[in-house]
UniProtKB/TrEMBL annotation:
This is RNA-directed DNA polymerase. InterPro entries: DNA/RNA_pol_sf, GrpII_Intron_Splice-Mob/Def, Reverse_transcriptase_msDNA, RT_dom. Its EC number is 2.7.7.49. Belongs to the bacterial reverse transcriptase family. Keywords: Antiviral defense, Magnesium, Metal-binding, Nucleotidyltransferase, RNA-directed DNA polymerase, Transferase. It catalyses: DNA(n) + a 2'-deoxyribonucleoside 5'-triphosphate = DNA(n+1) + diphosphate. Pfam families: RVT_1 (PF00078). GO terms for molecular function: metal ion binding; RNA binding; RNA-directed DNA polymerase activity.
Amino acid sequence: MIKFDLHNFFGQIEERDVYRVFDSCGYSALVSFELARICTRSRVADFHSRSGRYSAITTYDVDVTGRLPQGAPTSGALSNAVATPLDYTLHEFATGAGFVYTRYSDDMVLSTCQDFNRAQAVTIIREVSHLVATHRFRLHRKKTRVIPPGARHVVLGLLVDGGEVRLTPEFRRRVEVHIRGVREFGLSEHSDHRKFRSLLSFINHVEGSLAFARSIQPAWADEKRAEWRSILGSLGLTL
């Protein structure tokens, strides 16, 4: 397995890229422009003076162009639409090399059941870097990892090296620490100790973690949720 990270993934996607997405969906030029403006954010570093370039507007030229903001509810779908050509390119390359290509946001993985050595891995990494660059993205080289067969295979925080996808021990431990902390020290005390902004944000965090866990290991999650809800019930809280 070879793991890659796209450096500043959302920040590399420009307003004009988002404009093209809406334009390709059949929106008028004006609506596409307005939607692209709404879904992007300008930064101080993006301010450029382009005076004298508007005698005839034939391209998408504006004084300030935005980039996709990380965390916005629209950025995930828009970034995937922009990165679709990259996905096709890397899928074709991976298939030809005997690998399976997977991407979620800025995390990319090439996985295979066949044997390959370090020299082959270096060649693949170099080619992936080149292909990524042709689509105006960049790899975060410090986050590129070659995972040997005997090591833990963790993708997007999940263990994938067995017969089924599993939660990592670290994730399970974090949930169990929260449950035990509330039981032994109290809801407010544990929430404050863990630096949560409010009791509601802490409760939502645990509930969200258990909901996520249930999609991966339902038996473990149901057991922990019953324990968690029982503790909250003893404190007069019901969910």
